[in-house]
Amino acid sequence: MELHSLFLFAILAGIFLPAPVDSAYVAYNTSSGIVPGKINVHLVPHSHDDVGWLKTVDQYYAGANNSIRGACVQNVLDSVISALLDDSNRRFIYVEMAFFERWWRQQSDVLKAKVKRLVDSGQLEFINGGMCMHDEATPHYIDLIDQTTLGHRFILDEFGKKPRVGWQIDPFGHSAVQGYLLGAELGFDSLFFARIDYQDRAKRISTKTLEVIWKASRSLGSSSQIFTGIFPVHYEPPDGFNFEINDVSDPIQDDPLLFDYNVRQRVNDFVAAALAQANVTRTNHIMWTMGTDFRYQYAVSWFRQMDKFIHYVNLDGRVNALYSTPSIYTDAIFAAKEKWPLKTGDFFPYADRENAYWTGYFTSRPGFKGYVRSLSGYYLAARQLEFFKGRYSTGPNTDALADALALAQHHDAVSGTQRQHVAADYALRLSIGHKEAEKVVASSLAALTSSRLKSTQMDSNPEFQQCPLLNISYCPPSEANFTNGKSLVIIAYNSLGWKREDVIRIPVSSENLVVRDSAGKEIESQLLPISNISLLTTEYLVKAYLGISASGSARYWLAFSVSVPPLGFSTYTVSSSKSTGSESRSFVSTVYTSEEGSVENLEVGQGDLKLLYSANEGRLTHYANKRNLVTELPELSYSYYTGYNGTDRVFQASGAYVFRPNGTFPIEPKGQVPLAVIRGPLLDEVHQQLNAWLYQVTRVYKDKEHAEVEFTIGPIPVDDGYGKEIVTKISTALSSNKTFYTDSNGRDFIKRIRDYRADWDLDVHQPVAGNYYPINLGIYLADETRELSVLVDRAVGGSSLVDGQIELMLHRRLINDDTRGVGEALNETVCVLDDCKGLMVRGKFYFRIDPLGEGAKWRRTLGQEIYSPPLLAFSEEEEGYNWKSSRTTTFSAMDQSYSLPNNIAVITLQELQSGKVLLRLAHLYEAGEDKDYSVVSGVELKKLFSGKKIKKVTEMTLSGNQERKKMEKSRLEWKVEDEDEEKVVRGGGVDPVKLVVELAPMEIRTFIIDFDYLSSHGDSDIHHRL
Ligand SMILES: [Zn+2]
Fold it and tell me: Ligand 1 centroid vs 667 CA: distance in angstroms?
């Protein structure tokens, strides 16, 4: 307070600069550093470069498609580098490594050497340092780690540097996982961003709490907290200080021979803006973010003005201006020895004004979100297989998929807030990366199945095909006809660290089939008919996506149980029972339709879980689990919100970002909904066509205690002039008292209370949209005796708007732009030639009701299984060839007797280019979440890497770019207001002899492992031998 009045006095006293009389060269003094006792204005030059939004990443880089927007990142980097070389006091931060990498590889060695010097001197600093500035609502945490690791590795390899600061300035709300995992666990000392709820911001400005210590993990507490700075307005400079060539801010005109000499005026403007900002922060340091989207295409136009401001403002002397970076700012703030307010939880949802909750993008582009998620799990498995075989120095690898997935995490990519042609570009990159990774998977499986063969037999390596369109029942290898004596060989690979039992399904064309397991034993299998409607859909979609005509030969789904060892595979063969002369064959499911009309109630479920349907009403009425005696009268329904049809911010429309409903309508089928019930020994299915564009299949597996719901939604009709957002609701009698829990990027569950925010008194304007939260893993609610959990297969938005009820938004199609810049309506279509229809989306969710306190085991275990489904590869066994006798039919990379504890997952197992191996282990439970599994558990590395000799294990920070020990020594220890005692549990050091890694709840530990390949031995070790 005193400090500020002193400066006010200075303004009034007017220490004014005298105007010179001659025009001459001015050597601007830009060398100032921090001046104690003054208000220090840290000018942070930056350019916010989206790796795809209105244009594709490459169009932005090259400056193509400029009729959409004049943006060329190549210009930014070229001109910034030369501006930095011109004056060694100038500084710049760079954030998006996808762009920087593109630029770097085309530079000369001479320029590269200069740029390295700029980086060494701190003039050019990499912050954040992932490939992109990722979204925080809709990515899975493994993707966030992977994309950050990729960027950090580039920075380390090329520059030997480790980014110190998180810079998530644009994402639309901020996740707990960002704060503690992609912040503190990376070794970052601070994190900065712009977008928080407008009500939250107003309160923080008035209470000087824009800068906080964010303790985002309940389990890891103060061991994983981070200093977090929220900008008072946005990530632009204060008004009047934008200096791109077309910007309207007044430049400093300091030539006295020209008209409009304005040095005094501009210095006063600068000082006034600085004092205004100093009023809302706690120290005498303030940061000005000097730049915004795609700025510095002509960098001198910014630096020229900042040179002058620094020179004249410091001559004036009321405040001190300096070239700075967020790291310099962070160190200055830290040196102030202030105590900071504590922030827990996260920053969702985000509204930028009353009726503008950015909660629509939690669901926008559900097809793309599903694609990203399924490839994320595939990439995890493919890297494991790449490691088991040995990484190729040339030839196919998983790098293209890694790059494509990294770009897809951008805050205008998986978020669904890009233009249509940009969404197509991301999808194309993913499909190219996927194709290459498929080759890696196929060759690895070929090698692993051939490991018993002598090298003379190796030329007969089998071809492995995979079926990425299995979800629309399209899989040519499994649809082949097996009457000619050939058999289908299916390898099921399990990327989980524990053994799994799962029912898989493949489309087949005949009914007399027999399935055998790895040992050649016949196993139970079930045929489920594929309906004609479903076949027509498959034909249409195959034509749309592959441009070919599907043969349409599939008539059934063939389902059977697979049992697969950890980090390993099992082999199954399918052959015609006629040609093998087998007695048994697949069970053909019985089909009953309620139109047959003889019963009132239909029960499904061959195991403990029973679901009862009213045949007359066509709906679910009873849920009963015989094992734990949980019963409930649930309702599963669908409805839609019509989107508000505004065209400006007052009449805010629902769009790609914003969810603004304008009424809700139940989807009530006219008259009776005929149910089709398909029953068999492994699973039962209930099929319901709810209307012309909504089809639902509910599955109950004999050995599972949850219901799996597969929905097919679309084309959503919009010809009535209204966009529609489709939701499903699962209603129960649980009295959940406004409370529910949603995950943070698939990891920690965060408590939500309807119409409530912990940090301020909420003014409720949007009772639906304002209670929506991002869901990546699941959502649950509880009362005093039971809990209802729902898990998802991709990012969706969801809420509990009524006690006992969970709501998920599954699809949305809108006809207006929501005026947040994308400039397009979110209206996805699928076309065959010129015939376009609204996008059809198929996905799954899973629900289960447990006694209170018993839901976590299911959520965590099934959550891993959903993320990492068995990877299926198909080959053919020629007649007379005996696969089983000549090939390896089961494999596990781990010791045969070993399995990871149920609370630990391998989230990265990857051979790096250096030949070293990157291993990440994650504890799956939070402290206190489960009575059995919320405990410290150990992983025996010797058994995990069976047959390999471990030479050295080095614990690293999350992105693997520095030793954890070093990071812990150098990280800043911030002080918190009202700090209370807390006990944080973390795993201890790894004994180099025992090699056991301990993990405490929610801990993720990252290691670089060196193997001694020369002394490796054992059957499972084919590494580097092939
Ligand atoms: Zn952006």
Answer: 36
Measure 425 CA to ligand 1 centroid, in angstroms: 17
Instruction: Give the Å distance between the CA of 589 and the centre of ligand 1.
Output: 51
Q: What whole-number distance in Å separates Cα of residue 601 and Cα of residue 686?
A: 13
Q: How far apart are the first and last CA of the chain?
A: 72
pLDDT tens per residue across span 801-847 = 999 999 999 999 999 999 999 999 999 999 988 889 999 999 999 99
Ligand 1 center to 49 CA (angstroms): 7
Q: Are 252 and 305 in contact (CB under 8 A)?
A: yes
Cα 46 to ligand 1 centre (Å)? 13
Q: What distance in angstroms lies between residue 648's CA and the mean position of ligand 1's atoms?
A: 21
- Residues 284-299 have pLDDT tens digits of 999 999 999 999 999 9
Write the secondary structure of 512-564 as one string of H (helix), E (strand) and C (coil): CEEEECCCCCEECEEEEECCHHHHHHHHHHHHHHHCCCCCCCCCEEEEEEEEE
Asked whether 97 and 130 are in contact (CB, 8 A), the reply is: yes
Which residues neighbour 275 within 8 Å (Cβ) at sequence distance 6 or greater?
4, 7, 8, 11, 39, 319
Tokens standing for residue 185 = 């666990």
Structure tokens at 838: 């609204």
Question: Distance between CA atoms of 9 and 318, rounded to whole angstroms?
Answer: 10
Cα of 293 from ligand 1 centre, angstroms = 7
Separation of CA 292 and ligand 1 centre (Å): 9
Q: Tens of pLDDT along 101-120?
A: 999 999 999 999 999 999 99
Distance 772 CA to ligand 1 centre (A): 22
pLDDT computed for residue 457 by the predictor: 53
C-alpha distances in angstroms, 617 versus 529, 612, 666, 695?
24, 12, 15, 16
Per-residue pLDDT of 896-915, as tens digits, reads 999 999 999 999 999 998 88
CA distance 1002 to 923: 5
179 alpha carbon – ligand 1 mean position (Å): 19
Torsions phi, psi for 893 (to 5 deg): -70, -15
From the CA of 51, how far away is ligand 1's center (Å)? 8
- Secondary structure of 654-677 as H, E, C letters: CCCCCCCEEEEEECCCCCCCCEEE
Residue 168's alpha-carbon distances to 229, 630, 715, in angstroms, are 11, 44, 35
CA distance 150 to 405: 11
User: Which residues, in sequence order, are CB contacts of 197 under 8 Å at separation 6+?
Assistant: 347, 349, 350, 351, 757
